[in-house]
Specification:
Two copies of one chain form a homodimer. Chain A is α/β, with parallel strands linked by helices and about 200 residues long. Chain A is built from eight helices and five strands, in the order βαβαβαβαβαααα. In chain A, β4, α4 and β5 form a beta-alpha-beta unit. The two termini of chain A are about 35 Å apart. The structure holds a DNA duplex (30 and 30 nucleotides).
Chain lengths: ~200, ~200
DNA sequence: TAAAAATCGGCAAAAATTTGCCGACGGACG
DNA sequence: CGTCCGTCGGCAAATTTTTGCCGATTTTTA
């Protein structure tokens, strides 16, 4: 409904080889308060990704040069937790299956209903807000080497994410988290310290 | 091609409300060397699951009483890593998306091509052979854990994902993965064994 | 205000993971 | 052939993590 230009700039990377559609969607999303970066090919998309942090990627499954899946695959690797949403005109079941396997968040059908797109992104923004943070803090000390995130780092980032998410879900109740995650209290504690997780309150 | 009744008994739970189809598929799979348990409803399926350990579940998406998705959802609870394969006649994109979100391994289209089914299961067998072990050690043996997926399980699943992705990205080159993930060769090896990851090459 | 419920951290034993070293194997290549 | 390269696995030591136990504090609840 209300589209408020949030304080938190949620940045969406829109990838589509159809210039018109791309422009239209971008415009629409911008009006709705999203920050939008566009790309008309996978290559350009990667350039954009290097230039700045995006919070979600919306991409056409079928593009001239790079198949959308190959694109997603590379993306998955450099940005493990980055939400990807596909859309396509006549997607076959296997297409959808493969897309989801690559960790797609959703798969929309073309032509895209603006309402649906908006809802998808809004949900995403709400749900994945902190994920981006995790990525940013835990990943790549310097942004030069996008691909060289160590295994350990990624896993730790994920652990952190899980715990923080669960913590939030249970309104900061450690006890509930322990129960939900089936993790030893002591262990959870250790991890929180190690990963620098603080309850509800914040920095400083 | 050659289907050898393996020493390792891979047990498949086949769920379909169509008696004839169910029987036919079961027979076929048995001939191909799988151990098959059948159920014509979600309820029966759960009974079977309590009776014995199965390694994979193949289920129709649309069934009279329980919608396949609801079934999968319950299943996800009790068996977070248990591979589920769906099949359906006229699945919509959203259907597939939801199925995959619930962690479906694959989504086949009805009528099922025996060849495809067989291949799917064979791959599954190869890939998930050892995963069962992980599952067993990863979370409570008891079904008391009705609620959630344990922290450990989730992390393991993620580790598995990272490794498999990297492996795929580097066309199965362990050396490259070691370099990319900055992980000790020995460690990577251990994890692959523990998580049941096999290199691109495949079946027996 | 007292009792009950939640958190947190120190410590040390127990358990699990990681890593280095060594030898082996199969394939590609000169 | 003989070698080099990439992979694998056994073993044991080095490390890291997980857990249990105890007691101290803080927050809620009755």
């Amino acid at each position: 409904m209300t589209s408020k230009p949030d304080a938190a700039p949620f940045c969406v990377l829109l990838v589509d080889d159809d210039h018109d559609v791309l422009g239209a969607n971008a415009r629409y999303l911008r009006i709705e308060g999203f920050e939008v970066v566009v790309a008309n090919s996978a290559d350009v998309a990667f350039e954009r990704l290097h230039e700045r942090d995006v919070d979600a990627v919306i991409t056409d499954l079928i593009m001239p040069n790079t198949p959308g899946l190959a694109f997603a695959q590379k993306l998955r690797f450099s940005h493990p937790l980055l939400p990807i949403v596909f859309f396509s005109g006549h997607a076959s079941v296997p297409d959808v299956v493969n897309a989801m396997r690559l960790g797609a968040v959703d798969f929309l059908e073309k032509p895209i209903d603006p309402e649906v797109l908006l809802k998808t992104l809004t949900d995403l923004r709400d749900r994945y807000e902190r994920t981006a943070v995790v990525e940013r803090t835990a990943f790549m000390p310097d942004e030069t080497s996008a691909g060289t995130v160590s295994f350990r780092t990624r896993v730790l980032a994920y652990e952190k994410f899980i715990i923080e998410a669960s913590l939030e879900e249970h309104e900061g109740s450690v006890a509930k988290v322990i129960d939900a995650l089936k993790i030893n209290r002591r262990t959870l504690n250790e991890k929180m310290v190690r990963l620098g997780i603080r309850r509800s309150g914040d920095s400083a």
